Amino acid sequence: LLEVHVEARHGVEPAQVETIIAEEVAAFGGSHAATRQAGRDAARAAVSKAAAKARRAALLDRDSAAAWADAIGAMTLVRGDPHDLERHIEALGAVDATDVQRVVGRYLVPEGRTTVRLVPATPASEVAP
Description:
Helix content: 55-70%
Oligomer: single chain
Number of helices: 5
Order of helices and strands: HHHHH
Structural class: mainly alpha
Strand content: under 5%
Radius of gyration: 20 Å
């Protein structure tokens, strides 16, 4: 699940904001012609950092024997194998930019998108204090 929350300035059309977001998602997925090497390098570094952070968080969130037991029990219940927790934590650290680009290209496509627009009936500048 990817959520994008945007609060546009007065006068900016929601469709314009949606277009910009769609272009950014497409660029990260590698399907945008304007994607530059520097941008890809930055994305790779960001993904590497995020993967390491996710792995650390998965380890540090289990700060007691009871927390580890709960996690192992849940993994056994959901996947049927207590060792899947260890594999899952290692997989978090192994995610790379290619994995993210593959997922973006597969799931973050217009056909799978839900857009909710919350536009005030009266602009804030016209509301009496």
